[in-house]
Write a structure and sequence with these properties.
By secondary structure, the chain is α/β, with parallel strands linked by helices. The chain contains 14 helices and 14 strands.
């Protein structure tokens, strides 16, 4: 009997037909946080290579961020907004415990009322889970196009190590079968009960198991999903042009890339965590967006997300000539957004995030 991986194949052409990204322009530097955690200013930037992180404005939440990235994706799309027949938003910071973020975003974007939608939550991989579901809807022939969004204003308790990285951002992808910018060639997921990071119902901030989040969590799950994907496609790391891994910090993605046989040149286009931080459900999707912003046609991109609790989604995309053609006319690329930033003080940071936004 053939294994699952040997039987797997994408039954119908499907891929990314548009995408958008939004990163708040406000930043707090790690040196500023150092001062308030009793450390030498600059010590975190030197040791952890985290320079700053994106901070939401006081009137921004996961829903407004989602609207910004999705609005950009719609502006770039060659299809009508009415062709989008499903919407999935992954986040750890949905504004309401009971009330769908998706309904708010769909209405703000002017999408059809005849739409399938759901809010997703699986730590930092909820956005890529939405990407998988959207692809499946289109592959099945049930829908013309589907949108997946990862959006977060990540929470971290003052004084916690996560305060240096928990950030805000959003990325949106429209999946379809026509006008493909990056074709989906394969995808696979893994999941286990590995409690490295959690937040109990009613708790304001999450808890984490420190170093336990490394080897048995992040590294184990990404290694499993990527190894399965490579087996499925009968490829090796050297035969893939670019790689994108979830970026909670600088060390983890560079380490897992090396272990799996990738080099820094394959990973480099995706690395924005140093100045943006860990945007949780948006992190892998933003890293993919930055890669798509710069790579040429006919390039393969391996993507692997990670979500605590724990699991990983892996994808293999191949860019098309249409991507480079369309990109010539786009504004708001991630590098352009990163060129317009404003540093804020710790008191401003606390004021902006006091409403549970981060």
């Amino acid at each position: 009997m053939k294994s699952f991986l040997q039987q797997y194949s994408i039954p119908k052409k499907v891929g990314i037909v548009s995408y958008g990204a939004y990163i708040p322009h406000q930043r707090i530097t790690s040196a500023e946080i150092d001062l308030h955690q009793g450390k030498d200013p600059g010590s975190t930037a030197k040791s952890a290579h985290l320079i700053s992180k994106a901070v939401p404005a006081s009137d921004e939440d996961a829903a407004t961020l989602a609207c910004m990235s999705a609005g950009q994706a719609l502006e770039r799309a060659s299809i009508s907004s009415q062709d989008i027949q499903s919407l999935f938003i992954g986040s750890e910071s949905h504004p309401y415990a009971v009330k769908p973020t998706g309904a708010t975003v769909a209405t703000a974007l002017g999408l059809s009322q005849y739409i399938s939608l759901a809010d997703l939550e699986f730590a930092c991989k909820a956005g890529t889970q939405g990407l998988q579901i959207s692809a499946a809807y289109v592959q099945s022939g049930m829908q013309i196009a589907s949108m997946a969004i990862g959006s977060d204003t990540a929470q971290a308790a003052p004084g916690d190590a996560l305060e240096y990285s928990a950030a805000a951002g959003s990325a949106a992808y429209i999946l379809g079968s026509k006008g493909i910018l990056a074709e989906l060639l394969a995808t696979v997921s893994v999941a286990t009960d590995t409690p490295d990071f959690w937040r109990l119902n009613g708790s304001e901030y999450p808890s984490h198991a420190g170093r336990f989040s490394g080897e048995p969590a992040y590294f184990a799950h990404i290694t499993k999903s990527v190894t399965a994907l490579l087996e499925m496609t009968q490829l090796t790391a050297k035969k893939i042009d670019y790689c994108v891994f979830h970026t909670p910090n600088m060390k983890f993605p560079t380490t897992v890339a090396k272990r799996l046989g990738f080099n820094l040149e394959q990973l480099q286009p995706s690395l924005l965590v140093q100045t943006v931080g860990n945007t949780y459900s948006a992190a892998t999707l933003l890293a993919l967006a930055q890669t798509l912003d710069s790579v040429e046609a006919n390039k393969t991109i391996l993507v692997a997300s990670y979500g605590s609790g724990a699991g990983s989604d892996a994808f293999l995309f191949k860019t098309t000539p249409l991507l480079t053609k369309r990109r010539l006319h786009w504004s708001g690329l991630i590098k352009q957004q990163l060129s317009k930033t404003t540093n804020i003080s710790y008191s401003e940071y606390m004021h902006n995030t006091s409403g549970g936004h981060a």
